[in-house]
Automatic annotation (TrEMBL):
Family to which the UniProt record says this protein belongs: Belongs to the plant LTP family.
A molecular-function term among this protein's GO annotations: lipid binding
Gene it is expressed from: LOC108805261
Gene3D superfamilies in the cross-refs: Plant lipid-transfer and hydrophobic proteins
Job description of the protein: Plant non-specific lipid-transfer proteins transfer phospholipids as well as galactolipids across membranes. May play a role in wax or cutin deposition in the cell walls of expanding epidermal cells and certain secretory tissues.
Gene Ontology annotations of biological process type: lipid transport
Name the UniProt record assigns to this protein: Non-specific lipid-transfer protein
Originating species: Raphanus sativus
Signal sequence range: 1-19
Keywords noted in UniProt: Disulfide bond, Lipid-binding, Signal, Transport
Superkingdom of the organism of origin: Eukaryota
The Bifunctional inhibitor/plant lipid transfer protein/seed storage helical domain, residue ranges: 23-109
InterPro entries: Bifun_inhib/LTP/seed_sf, Bifunc_inhib/LTP/seed_store, Plant_nsLTP
Length: 113
C-alpha cells in the first residue's frame, strides 16, 4: 500500500496545471488525509485544515478545475480499493467543507464553475 501512496504523490507532485493552485499545493494540503483514506477511523484535524485551505485557495473556476484534475489524475494513476475511494469521497463532508466536485475518478472537472 505504501508504494501506491508514493506513486499517488509522485503523480501529483509532477503534474502541473494552468491553475493558480499547483498540484504541489494540493499534495501538501491533502497529505495529512492519507492515514484516513487508507485506514479509516477518525479524520485527522490537519486533514480538515488542509481541505479547508485548499477549498479557500481555489477561488476561480480555473483553480477549482485544476485542483479537481490533480485529484482525479492521482486517483486514476494508482490502484485503490472501494473502501479507500469511499473514505476519500467522505472527507469533505466529514470536515464540513462543500466542494463543488466529488473526489471520484468519474468526476467531470470541466463542468465545475
Amino acid at each position: 500500500m505504501r508504494s501506491i501512496l508514493l506513486a499517488l504523490f509522485l503523480v501529483l507532485a509532477f503534474h502541473h496545471g494552468e491553475a493558480a493552485v499547483s498540484c504541489n499545493a494540493v499534495v501538501g494540503d491533502l497529505y495529512p488525509c492519507l492515514s484516513y483514506v487508507v485506514q479509516g477511523g477518525n479524520v485527522p484535524t490537519n486533514c480538515c485544515n488542509g481541505i479547508r485551505t485548499l477549498n479557500s485557495q481555489a477561488q476561480t473556476p480555473v483553480d477549482r478545475q485544476g485542483v479537481c484534475r490533480c485529484i482525479k489524475n492521482a486517483i486514476g494513476g494508482v490502484s485503490f480499493s472501494s473502501n479507500n475511494l469511499n473514505n476519500a469521497q467522505s472527507l469533505p463532508a466529514k470536515c464540513g467543507v462543500n466542494l463543488p466536485y466529488s473526489i471520484s475518478p468519474s468526476t467531470n472537472c470541466d463542468s465545475i464553475n
